[in-house]
Amino acid sequence: MLTAESNKLFTEIGEGTPMGDLLRRYWMPIAAVSEFDETATKPVRLMGEDLVLYKDLSGNYGLTDRHCAHRRADLSYGFVEETGIRCNYHGWCYDQKGNCIEQPYEDTVDSSGKLRKQVKLKAYPVEEKGGLLWAYMGPEPAPLVPTWEPFTWENGFVQIVLSEVPCNWFQCQENSIDPIHFEWMHANWSIRLKGETGPYSPKHIKVDFDEFDYGFRYLRIREDTDEEHPLWTVGRTCLWPNCLFTGEHFEWRVPIDDENTLSVGWFFARVPTDKEPYVQERIPVWKSPIKDEETGRWISTHVMNQDFIAWVGQGTVADRTKEHLGLSDKGVGMIRKRYMDDIERIKKGEDPKAIVRNPNENGCIELPIIGKKYFRDGLSTEEILENADSPIGGTYRRFPFQAGQPQWVKDEFEEATGFRLQDSFPQDQGELSNIGSKDEEFAEK
Ligand code: FES
Ligand SMILES: [Fe+2]
Question: Which of 7, 48, 72, 275 has its CA 20 to 30 A from that of 16?
Fold first, then answer.
């Protein structure tokens, strides 16, 4: 249970708030590179700030204030130039640093450029990595965008999936350190969703949590596993400061504002070894719906959609003055403490946890990964077919994580892997829910 004051500390991310200042020390994924194949500008609301993300005609990205400094027109309707973005109202043009580099009428009648020199838009650096565009809103010098190990894997089909979830970021991130929910929210609920009443998934009998340089691991033993099992020896990762990393996918929870979160999913599927070498020319991105428009209820057919239901169900901003934490919530307590400590660290002028500044460290940042060998080395089509009933085999049959995968993404997946994805149905979830848990022996091969 938290005081109302502590709850505010964790949940308010506006500029100048303690958590807002802390999160601004990290690069945030905000869009996919391939979104800019079709458009040059994208309106973005990030950390409570209205911004425009754009790619200029030279191929450089910029992220600036959404509103023109002249008379506040919306720059997401502006047009890009060789350098920067031009307002469509009276033609003022801004570079990536937010400098006003042209004021067509003023420049014509007043060669001193007096007004132009006074004008500057808020602007943030943008970098590209892993097919994502990352923004940094904190003080200079900016750290490096971490090169997480899966970004270096080859022969993979990657897809990026975006969803807007109408609740505060912190309850989403607390889900990143929550092993018990796999048993109930995914496994057992899915059994009920398909109309059955059991048998339920093996129970958890022991959980543990530990901290490492880039986050926290959660470890677990179920009735059907033991201390030799990778769920205990390797575990899964609450990646700092706002991500869940499961081994083959990342889920970032990026604050849009205090009441909305952008879920950014990055999913890796290894192409069969007989399809190598495979180089993905363009990483597809798609937007996943979270509400069933016919019923007005949240979609429950896919693993992450089930998580979203938990998060929004906790309220727009979860009221932690009314919670009762148990032994299963030890990890939640640990991460809360770390955020608090980090807030203190930045007040003292120190870097918070998991800031990467050394290029030698950033060649490839290794993480705990169950089945690492499989992701790196792959399996042949024949081996995948032989193991079709395992959850890893299952990922070649359907995309289990988020609803609404477009047909054109399925087509690209098929071209890369030779496997045709079906839509996921609730009756599959009992099996799907255990992805990455019951398949470890297979994955370790
Ligand atoms: S409002 Fe943008 S140039 Fe006038
Ligand atoms: Fe989950």
Answer: 72
Burial 158-167 (b: 16+ CB within 10 A, else e): bbbbbbebeb
- Ligand 1, atom 4, lies closest to the CA of 90
Across 227-255, average pLDDT: 97
Ligand 1 pocket mutation, candidates 41, 66, 68, 107, criterion most atoms within 8 A of CB: 68
CA distance 53 to 65: 9
Closest residue by CA, ligand 1 atom 3: 90
3 state SS of 356: coil
Please say whether the beta carbons of 254 and 30 come within 8 A: yes
Q: For residue 61, what are the β-bridge partners?
A: 55
Residues 238 and 215 sit within 8 Å (Cβ to Cβ) = yes
Task: Give me the pLDDT at residue 425, please.
Answer: 55
**Six-digit token string for 411:** 């087509």
Q: Which atom of ligand 1 is nearest to the CA of 68?
A: 2
Residue 381 backbone dihedrals phi, psi, to 5 degrees: -55, -40
Pairing verdict, β 126-129 and 243-245? unpaired
Query: In CATH, which of 3.40.50.970, 2.102.10.10, 3.40.50.150, 1.10.10.10 is domain 30-135?
Result: 2.102.10.10
Render pLDDT for 128-180 as a digit per residue (tens, 0 to 9).
Answer: 999 999 999 999 999 999 999 999 999 999 999 999 999 999 999 999 999 99
On the question of pLDDT at 438 being above 60, the answer is no
pLDDT over threshold 50, residue 429:
no
Q: How far is the CA of 212 from the centre of ligand 2 (A)?
A: 22
pLDDT of residue 443: 43
**Four-CA torsion 219, 221, 224, 226, nearest 10 degrees:** 100
Q: Is the dihedral of CA 197, 201, 204, 205 positive or negative?
A: positive
> For residue 133, what are the β-bridge partners?
31, 128
Alpha helices by DSSP H, 12-109: 18-23, 104-109
pLDDT at position 118 is 96
Residue 426 predicted with pLDDT over 80: no
List the chain domain ranges: 30-135, 149-444
For residues 349-360, average pLDDT: 98
Percent helix / strand / coil, the chain, rounded to 5: 30, 25, 45
Q: In whole angstroms, how large is the CA radius of gyration of the chain?
A: 23
